[in-house]
Structures are given as structure tokens and as C-alpha cells.
Amino acid sequence: MIPHWLLIELSQLDGITFDTQEVDFSSRAQKSEEYLAINPKGVVPTLVIHNDDGSSSSYTESAAIALLLAARHPQANLAPHNVQSPQYAKYIETMIYLANTVLPAMRDWFYASSDSQSSSESTIKTIKQMATRRIGAAWDLLDKQLQDQPYLVENVVGGEWQPTAADFLVVVLARWSRNFDEPAVKWNNLDGLIRRMTSRGSWVALKANQELEDAEWPQ
Ligand SMILES: N[C@@H](CCC(=O)N[C@@H](CS)C(=O)NCC(=O)O)C(=O)O
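^ inputs. structure came back:
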């Protein structure tokens, strides 16, 4: 979802073209020989970039793809421009925090049974509890980071705050928590960010493209 959303954003602002290909989990297409050739981890997402010389390169890891897209298209202002600035450092720190802490905890929550290869209800419950605790602690921290500012990282262009790739990524992660006992929208500042980000035209296009079953999130 994160590469797709950013690509829609870039195609609107920067005129880049892309297409998407669904990976059918029900037939385990993510583990097929053909797919493993472009992503040996056997997971989504994969970004394939067609190079000027006719070759193509594939890239994996959702947060890395987000960083890459932001860096390759500076006109879209998805990252602070000055790599020497404290704002850029905060941006990288936030992206790594989301990738290192929140994403793996989400993976643990959703894949508690298959990744642990356990059918023990108590094992699965413990994994989910640990993941939930980590995710809640992350929402606390990110909510504080949003105190008195509209986006996670100061990225002011022409006098106006612009969202960075970190804001797009956190909203995707927040959506995954929508059916948790404590969804991210329960944190006020995060809720504000989610509403700001999901009012973008690119989110509306993403929802239509992905035919999201819960098109009404956030309620
Ligand atoms: N660290 C990877 C994790 C990717 C991941 O776990 N993707 C899930 C979907 S959200 C997946 O492909 N699951 C299918 C599987 O594990 O077989 C990333 O951030 O790109």
C-alpha cells in the first residue's frame, strides 16, 4: 500500500507513470519461482524500476521503497531537501523507527500463528500481546512527536508544511490497526494526521484502485 500511495502521489505531482500487479496470496503467488526472482523474500511489496538502458531493477522493503521514491523525486517534497539539516535527520530517524519497530510488530500481530508455526492459542496470544504493547508505545511516541505540528517532521516548502514519506507510512500502519482494541485513531494527534492525510486526492485514488473493503476508514 505504501509504494502504491506514493506512486499515485508522484504521478499527480511529478507526472511519473507506473502500473501495479496484484500478487495473489490465495495461490501463494508470492512464493512462486517467477516472483522470487524479483523478491527472494517472498513478500510484498516489490518495486520494479525500468531503467533508461532497457534493463530493470527490483527493490524490496516497504520503508526503503518509500525512501527511494522520495529521494528520486525531490520535486514532490516528500523529504526535507537539505540532507545536512536536523529536519532531515529527524525524517530518517522516524522512517527507521517505523521500519524497525512498528512494521515488525505489525507483522508479529498479523502473522503470529504462521511465523511462529505454532497452533498453541497461548503462544499466539502472547505474541499478539507483545506486539500490541509495542505498537501502543509507538503510538504514544508518535502522538507526542505530532504535538503542535501538523506532520511528523518539519518540512516547510514556500512557507507551508508538507508531509514527508513518514506521514504516508504511518497512516498505512495506522490503518492496519483499525480493528485492534486500541486503534491508532484513539490517539488525538495521530487521528488529526490520519484525517489530514486521508483527505488527499491520492488517498481517494488509492482506495478506489485497491477496492478497499473498509472504504470508510477513518470513520
Ligand atoms: N519487511 C517487509 C515485510 C513485508 C511483509 O511482511 N509483507 C506481507 C504483507 S503486508 C506479505 O507479503 N505477506 C505474505 C507472506 O508472508 O507470505 C517490508 O516492509 O516490505
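Residues 8 and 44 are 18 Å apart (CA to CA). The first strand starts at residue 46 and ends at 50.
thumbs up if we can close this ticket
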